[in-house]
Amino acid sequence: MERKITEVVAALIWDGDRFMICQRPANKARGMLWEFVGGKVEPGETKQEALARECREELAVCVSVEEQFMEVVHEYPDLTVRLTLFHASISEGKPQKLEHNDIKWITVDQISEYEFCPADVEILQRIQKLQNPGHIPEKDEN
Q: Over the chain, what is the mean pLDDT?
Protein backbone atom coordinates (compact mmCIF):
# COMPACT_ATOMS: atom_id res chain seq x y z
CA MET A 1 0.00 0.00 0.00
CA GLU A 2 1.30 3.42 -0.98
CA ARG A 3 1.67 5.64 2.04
CA LYS A 4 0.26 9.13 1.89
CA ILE A 5 2.95 11.77 2.15
CA THR A 6 2.34 14.45 4.77
CA GLU A 7 3.47 17.89 3.58
CA VAL A 8 5.40 19.62 6.36
CA VAL A 9 7.11 23.01 6.35
CA ALA A 10 9.77 24.40 8.64
CA ALA A 11 11.70 27.63 9.10
CA LEU A 12 15.43 28.20 9.20
CA ILE A 13 15.56 31.43 11.20
CA TRP A 14 18.98 33.01 11.70
CA ASP A 15 20.03 35.62 14.23
CA GLY A 16 23.58 36.54 13.29
CA ASP A 17 25.55 33.27 13.36
CA ARG A 18 22.92 31.39 15.38
CA PHE A 19 19.72 29.70 14.22
CA MET A 20 16.57 28.74 16.10
CA ILE A 21 15.75 25.20 17.18
CA CYS A 22 12.71 24.08 19.17
CA GLN A 23 12.29 21.09 21.47
CA ARG A 24 9.18 18.99 20.95
CA PRO A 25 6.90 18.53 23.97
CA ALA A 26 7.35 15.23 25.82
CA ASN A 27 3.77 14.11 25.11
CA LYS A 28 4.07 14.32 21.29
CA ALA A 29 5.52 11.83 18.81
CA ARG A 30 9.32 12.19 18.84
CA GLY A 31 8.95 14.02 22.15
CA MET A 32 11.92 15.98 23.53
CA LEU A 33 13.78 15.82 20.21
CA TRP A 34 14.86 19.11 18.64
CA GLU A 35 13.51 20.43 15.35
CA PHE A 36 12.96 23.55 13.29
CA VAL A 37 9.74 25.46 13.98
CA GLY A 38 6.97 24.47 11.58
CA GLY A 39 4.24 21.97 10.98
CA LYS A 40 1.77 20.42 8.58
CA VAL A 41 0.40 22.20 5.53
CA GLU A 42 -3.41 22.42 5.77
CA PRO A 43 -5.63 21.88 2.70
CA GLY A 44 -5.88 25.06 0.61
CA GLU A 45 -2.73 26.64 2.06
CA THR A 46 0.48 27.34 0.23
CA LYS A 47 3.63 26.10 1.98
CA GLN A 48 4.56 29.71 2.74
CA GLU A 49 1.14 30.44 4.29
CA ALA A 50 1.37 27.27 6.38
CA LEU A 51 4.78 28.27 7.69
CA ALA A 52 3.63 31.78 8.61
CA ARG A 53 0.62 30.29 10.45
CA GLU A 54 2.70 27.69 12.30
CA CYS A 55 5.17 30.35 13.48
CA ARG A 56 2.23 32.44 14.78
CA GLU A 57 0.68 29.41 16.54
CA GLU A 58 3.88 27.98 18.00
CA LEU A 59 6.02 31.06 18.68
CA ALA A 60 3.63 34.06 18.58
CA VAL A 61 5.81 35.74 15.94
CA CYS A 62 5.23 37.02 12.42
CA VAL A 63 7.80 35.77 9.93
CA SER A 64 8.65 36.68 6.40
CA VAL A 65 9.13 33.46 4.50
CA GLU A 66 12.01 33.67 2.05
CA GLU A 67 13.48 31.22 -0.47
CA GLN A 68 13.37 27.46 -0.04
CA PHE A 69 16.52 26.01 1.55
CA MET A 70 15.88 22.35 0.78
CA GLU A 71 13.33 19.55 0.76
CA VAL A 72 13.66 16.05 2.22
CA VAL A 73 11.33 13.06 2.31
CA HIS A 74 11.61 10.99 5.48
CA GLU A 75 9.77 7.83 6.48
CA TYR A 76 8.97 7.57 10.16
CA PRO A 77 7.35 4.36 11.48
CA ASP A 78 4.02 6.23 11.79
CA LEU A 79 4.11 8.61 8.83
CA THR A 80 6.03 9.76 5.77
CA VAL A 81 6.80 13.47 5.59
CA ARG A 82 7.99 15.72 2.82
CA LEU A 83 9.72 18.45 4.78
CA THR A 84 10.30 21.74 2.98
CA LEU A 85 12.62 24.07 4.87
CA PHE A 86 12.48 27.78 4.06
CA HIS A 87 14.75 30.60 5.06
CA ALA A 88 12.64 32.91 7.21
CA SER A 89 13.11 35.95 9.40
CA ILE A 90 11.09 37.25 12.32
CA SER A 91 9.40 40.48 11.27
CA GLU A 92 7.40 41.00 14.47
CA GLY A 93 7.29 39.62 17.99
CA LYS A 94 9.61 37.75 20.33
CA PRO A 95 9.55 33.92 20.19
CA GLN A 96 7.47 32.34 22.97
CA LYS A 97 7.16 28.70 23.99
CA LEU A 98 3.47 28.25 23.17
CA GLU A 99 3.85 24.63 22.06
CA HIS A 100 7.48 23.66 22.54
CA ASN A 101 9.28 22.46 25.63
CA ASP A 102 12.18 24.81 24.89
CA ILE A 103 13.57 27.19 22.26
CA LYS A 104 17.28 27.77 21.70
CA TRP A 105 19.51 29.75 19.37
CA ILE A 106 22.55 27.67 18.46
CA THR A 107 25.60 28.02 16.24
CA VAL A 108 26.41 25.46 13.56
CA ASP A 109 29.23 24.16 15.78
CA GLN A 110 26.68 23.28 18.50
CA ILE A 111 24.49 21.04 16.27
CA SER A 112 26.11 17.84 17.56
CA GLU A 113 25.14 18.72 21.15
CA TYR A 114 21.41 18.27 20.41
CA GLU A 115 19.34 15.26 19.42
CA PHE A 116 17.22 16.20 16.41
CA CYS A 117 14.25 14.55 14.71
CA PRO A 118 15.56 12.10 12.09
CA ALA A 119 14.00 14.07 9.21
CA ASP A 120 16.20 17.06 10.11
CA VAL A 121 19.54 15.23 10.00
CA GLU A 122 20.13 15.68 6.26
CA ILE A 123 19.22 19.37 6.55
CA LEU A 124 21.62 19.90 9.45
CA GLN A 125 24.40 18.21 7.48
CA ARG A 126 23.79 20.62 4.60
CA ILE A 127 23.85 23.62 6.97
CA GLN A 128 27.16 22.36 8.37
CA LYS A 129 28.62 21.91 4.86
CA LEU A 130 27.58 25.41 3.80
CA GLN A 131 29.07 26.95 6.95
CA ASN A 132 32.31 24.98 6.67
CA PRO A 133 32.67 24.10 2.97
CA GLY A 134 35.94 22.21 3.49
CA HIS A 135 34.80 20.46 6.66
CA ILE A 136 34.01 16.75 6.57
CA PRO A 137 31.90 15.80 9.62
CA GLU A 138 33.33 12.95 11.65
CA LYS A 139 31.53 9.63 11.51
CA ASP A 140 29.09 9.15 14.38
CA GLU A 141 30.48 6.69 16.90
CA ASN A 142 27.10 5.36 18.22
A: 92
